[in-house]
Amino acid sequence: MVLLPLLLSGCGGNKEPVSELPPPSLEKDDPVGDDNEGGGSGVEVTPLGEGWSAKQIEPGIIYYAFNGTDEITQKHQEVFAVDIDLSNTAYKVKYVYESPRLTTSAAFKKQGNAIAAINANYEPGSIFFRIDGSDKYTLQNSTIGTTGVPNWKSEAAFAVTDERSVEFLWAGSQKKGEKTVDQQRAYYSSLSTTAYPSFMSSAPMLINNFVKVGETFCDYTIDTSKLNSEDPDKHQRTLHPRTAVALTENNHLIFFCVDGRIKSNGMSARQLTRFLAKWFNPKYALNLDGGGSTTMCVKGEGDANTNVVNYPCSENTNYDHTGERSRDVFLMVVKK
């Protein structure tokens, strides 16, 4: 796998409103964790111990769940992850695009042979998305929806280059906003459809070659009380439900989500970075759309009808597996 340099905000286009619940609370300057905590090349981590459960769903695919007080956040968290051994030729990884939009569980069911699925995309105007060589979204907006906040949601991308080959593309800079949307768009557009037939941009990058860049994405010296909820320094310091995709050194792909707003507290980008580093030690990790969109489906698990394993919070605040938000881009592992 090769980490490519990414030229990373100025283009018009339609602005779509960003529908999101008010942020519940901000991460405080926590007393736990530091830049050098855990992880690194050659360290294999298995997330087992108090609060963790593990179940083999298929050969080479393990479903993990955590329910308890996490030492990174020092709060109650409910976490769900699927570990996919990419060396197993019985499966393939793919992006799924649905228009009109579907819930994650409906898209999962529609595939028929899906083993696991997670939601993926931010609002279409804020991202670049290509599937099977066709560019569906081309990073058209310089701001986030109608908020006026500069578009920060495409600093990196997750690419599916073959059935079981993936790459993370990132700017190589920990300072957000260094590159314009025009530069980002030009870079993504220039990627060969042969080498990169399917990819989606997102933000923030959490872990880059074992470096926990997600710890420093936000400015923790500023007062966020007057910032728009879509401002990156507020959005990514807020304790949200979160979805992420990661890759370990031994070529295991991780689908990940953490709940929030109901019983689980959710995480900031910094907390999510530390949690992933501690319990999975990925070489790369990228934050995807979260909040009310966060949903994971696992074959044979969770709700008997939908296989939703987490507790989505978009449409209600009941402690059940309903409340999914319809989206249009999903990441799945399917049986060949």
Structural features, described:
It is built from 4 helices and 16 strands. Mean pLDDT is 89; it is low at 1-14 and 31-36. With 336 residues, it is mainly β. Strands 1-2-3-13-12-14-11 form a 7-stranded antiparallel β-sheet, with helices on one face. The chain is 10% helix and 32% strand. The protein has helices at residues 104-111, 181-190, 232-235, 269-279; strands at residues 52-58, 61-70, 75-85, 91-102, 114-119, 128-131, 134-138, 156-162, 165-170, 198-202, 205-208, 242-248, 252-258, 282-287, 296-298, 327-335.
**Poorly predicted parts:** 1-14, 31-36
- Give the overall shape: globular
* First-to-last CA distance: 23 Å
The average pLDDT score comes to 89
Gyration radius, to the nearest Å?
18 Å
Biggest sheet descriptor: 7 strands, antiparallel
The counted number of beta strands is 16
Order of helices and strands: EEEEHEEEEEHEEHEEHEEE
Strand order across the biggest sheet?
1-2-3-13-12-14-11
Strand content: 25-35%
Task: Briefly note the structural class of the backbone.
Answer: mainly beta
Query: Count of helical segments?
Result: 4
In percent, how helical is the residue content?
Answer: under 10%
Keywords:
mainly beta; five-stranded antiparallel β-sheet; 4 helices; 10% helix; globular
Summarize the structure.
The protein is 10% helix and 32% strand.
Write the layout of secondary structure elements.
Blueprint: E1 52-58, E2 61-70, E3 75-85, E4 91-102, H1 104-111, E5 114-119, E6 128-131, E7 134-138, E8 156-162, E9 165-170, H2 181-190, E10 198-202, E11 205-208, H3 232-235, E12 242-248, E13 252-258, H4 269-279, E14 282-287, E15 296-298, E16 327-335
